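Sample intake sheet
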Amino acid sequence: MEPEWKQDIKSIDYPNNPLPQYELMGFQEDIVADQKVMRKIILAISLCTAIAALAAVLFYLKDAKTFHREMLHKRSVNSKENPFKSKISLKVLQTRKTKSIQGLIGSTRVKSGFTFFIARVRILNEADRNFQVNPYGLALLTESGKRYNPHVGQRKLKEGIRSKVLKPGMEVEGEYVFELPIHEKVSSLVIKSYSGTLAKHHF
């Protein structure tokens, strides 16, 4: 025998009241409408993001163009007012060619078909202010019109020029090394700067 309360529950007549068809359709239409709204919102956000990115790029290009124009103007002014123009003396004391350079630690051999050109120079500051000597501030010009910067082994040279501040009237002496093809004939050695050539020595 089941308890009376279980029998009462079983005897309850629950009405079978399914959701009408028109209510189901309305629910589906609401979902579709919500999806359309969400797509519009996402599209609007994407458009706003793209417009903001484009505006940022245009602003950057405009700012870069302005900066470039200002730098060109500054260089033009500096080239006219460079206090070291004709005030830096460059003299080559000795030159030699070698297949290897001896550094503070170990040595470096030249590439095949090339040679190391080493110039011992003296740089004198005749300006009325300090001059910064750069270990990579010289360039070697050849008769073929090519230009060679100091080799990366410059800092390894025992007597290589190091970064140094020359006060007015001071001078420094040391070596610069360049790597160039064996057949190249050197023409001149120059001290370069942002405004052009400060000093030149013809071979």
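Comment: The mean pLDDT is 80. The chain has two helices and eleven strands.
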